[in-house]
Amino acid sequence: MKKLATTLATMAFCAVTATSAAAATYEYVGLAFDTIVDSAAVPGTYTTSDKISGSFTTAALLPEYVTSTDITGLLTGFSFTDGRNTYTMGVDEIVRFEVITDASGNIADWTIELQNIAVPNSLNPFFPDNNFKRLITRSGFFAGEVGTPKWDQGIELACTEPTGCVGFNFANWDEGRRTGANGSWAVDPTPAVPLPAGLPILASALLGLGLLRRRR
């Protein structure tokens, strides 16, 4: 009888846990670019209708008062775009992915830098031989960014030198940028198990415990 009661109590606990456990999706919507650089050597162009937007997911909500933390290891996925190029987890490289949360666990400050390098340069991995794309959004709070304004930026560089590019060639540089202001974040907690799916388990467990108590 005691073993049965323990089993029913465990079922009730699991049902409550299943209905309350949640993954989380954090979504960012930036402001439209107000500065455009367009090079004839790079196909395409950014426009003032483009902006940084996208989202990342974690297995659980970020805790309150996270302070200047690299959350790369907590990510289960991400997808961001600058209106021209899209960066996704498993395809593109994370340069920085750091956040600070407030008393409610909402994102208060951040630095996110993602990049795609078609052919890495053997002398410096941050400079391309053929093609380089980078997305940056940051609130300007983190160490090393003192005095740096809030910043959303999309970059695309194409190397036209036959021997490869050792450094950035600004003649072959496209850029869309918003300086001095950021967009906003929203979080969407998604239950791992929908509430109706957990209720029958919880109801059965509670009913069983009630019957056991009456028999005693």
UniProtKB/TrEMBL annotation:
Membrane-crossing segments per the record: 193-212
Entry superkingdom: Bacteria
Secretion signal, residue range per the UniProt entry: 1-23
Keywords: Membrane, Signal, Transmembrane, Transmembrane helix
The protein's name in its UniProt record: VPLPA-CTERM protein sorting domain-containing protein
